[in-house]
Write a sequence for this structure.
């Protein structure tokens, strides 16, 4: 799938001076790849009559390049999709879900995340593969 090109200049202009240029640069280079990866893993997005991904125009963007799911419910749809994937991993014994906690750092080994340091409600722990 090909996404409309998003340039650093476009993102900075759309942010009207409120944008961190280094973060905008990361979004411009990695955003389409991340969205494409989600879609390839089954995240449902809005499509046109021919079945192609439908791109929307938002805010100060100069061209239609925003992908939606459920029209204006993209955030809720993404949350539901990611939660379902997490719960499947938990059911398979491949992940652990801890309620009332926040991840404060990722644990990395050989360039990959394998867990996190978490804290919440008076406790702290490191969760992940040993």
């Amino acid at each position: 799938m090909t996404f409309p090109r998003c340039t650093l200049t476009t993102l900075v202009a759309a942010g009207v001076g409120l944008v961190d240029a280094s973060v905008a640069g990361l979004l411009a280079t990695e955003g389409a790849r991340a969205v494409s990866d989600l879609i390839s893993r089954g995240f449902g997005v809005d499509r046109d009559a021919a079945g192609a991904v439908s791109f929307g125009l938002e805010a100060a963007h100069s061209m239609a390049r925003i992908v939606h799911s459920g029209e204006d419910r993209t955030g809720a749809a993404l949350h539901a999709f990611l939660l379902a994937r997490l719960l499947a991993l938990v059911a398979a014994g491949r992940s652990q879900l801890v309620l009332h906690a926040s991840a404060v750092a990722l644990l990395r080994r050989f360039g990959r995340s394998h867990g996190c340091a978490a804290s919440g409600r008076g406790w702290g722990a490191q969760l992940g593969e040993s």
About this structure: Helices lie at 8-14, 21-40, 74-91. The mean pLDDT is 84. The radius of gyration is 18 Å. The chain has three helices and five strands.
